[in-house]
């Protein structure tokens, strides 16, 4: 088999959206730090949305990106919280997928923290194949050919094989 066709996890991103509530944002930062052991970065509003009472550069959420072995270990924990079941509609056409955890206490090894309360967060997983560097390198950037991209079916097969995930028809 061609080793360039093997699929790998590029990154796992934990997202928490708080809106304009800064107290909720502080709790979200504490939650993500508790789960991953690293400090997340704040995300800011890019434009003013009067209907939501948002102004430009207002902190509205936080995120943390994990790569390599750290990402795999955390992904296994997060999938256990979902009983290793994902819906087909969680996968996009580029082979990436995302899901949410409604309550962080669904994770087996996490205890309830009264300072945080009951909160949820989102997880986005980006998959790649060897050779994807050509789209990010500094010189001679190129597009990834269609035949080398990760499809929805490839991503679902990868998750079934490597993480023993059951895909549910939506």
Explain this structure:
This protein has 170 residues and is an alpha+beta fold. The protein has a single domain, classed as Ribosomal protein L5 (50s Ribosomal Protein L5, Chain: A), CATH 3.30.1440.10. It has 3 helices and 7 strands, in the order E-H-E-E-H-E-E-E-H-E. Strands 2-3-1-6-5 form a 5-stranded antiparallel sheet, with helices on one face. A two-stranded parallel ribbon has the order 4-7. The radius of gyration is 18 Å and the shape is globular. The chain starts with 7 loop residues before the first strand and ends with a strand. The mean pLDDT is 88.
Please report the distance between the alpha carbons of the first and last residues. Answer: 32 Å
What order do the strands of the largest sheet run in, or round the barrel if closed?
2-3-1-6-5
| Main beta-sheet strand count, sense and barrel state | 5 strands, antiparallel
**H and E string:** EHEEHEEEHE
The figure for the number of domains is: 1
Examine the secondary-structure arrangement and name the CATH architecture: 2-Layer Sandwich
Name the shape in a single word.
Answer: globular
What is the beta-strand fraction?
Answer: 15-25%
Query: Structural class of the helices, strands and pairings?
Result: alpha+beta
Percent helix among the residues? Answer: 10-25%
**Cα-atom radius of gyration:** 18 Å
Kindly provide the name of the CATH class. Alpha Beta
Q: Report mean pLDDT, rounded to a whole number.
A: 88
Question: What's the CATH topology label?
Answer: 50s Ribosomal Protein L5, Chain: A
Counting DSSP H or I runs of 4 or more residues, the number of helices is: 3
Q: Which parts are unreliable, with pLDDT below 50 for 5 consecutive residues or more?
A: none
């Amino acid at each position: 088999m061609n080793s360039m066709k093997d699929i790998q996890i590029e990154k796992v991103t934990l997202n928490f959206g708080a809106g304009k509530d800064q107290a909720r944002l502080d709790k979200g930062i504490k939650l993500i730090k508790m789960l991953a052991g690293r400090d997340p970065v704040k995300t800011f509003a890019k434009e003013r949305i009067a209907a939501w009472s948002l102004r430009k550069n207002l902190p509205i959420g936080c995120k943390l990106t994990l790569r390599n072995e750290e990402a795999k270990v955390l992904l296994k924990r997060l999938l256990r919280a979902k009983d290793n079941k994902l819906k087909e509609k969680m996968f996009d056409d580029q082979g990436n997928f995302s899901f949410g955890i409604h309550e962080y206490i669904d994770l087996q090894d996490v205890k309830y923290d009264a300072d945080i309360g009951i909160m949820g967060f989102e997880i986005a997983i980006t998959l790649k194949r060897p050779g994807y560097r050509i789209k990010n390198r500094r010189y001679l950037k190129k597009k990834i050919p269609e035949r080398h991209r990760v499809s929805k079916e490839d991503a679902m097969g990868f998750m079934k094989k490597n993480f023993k995930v059951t895909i549910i028809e939506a």
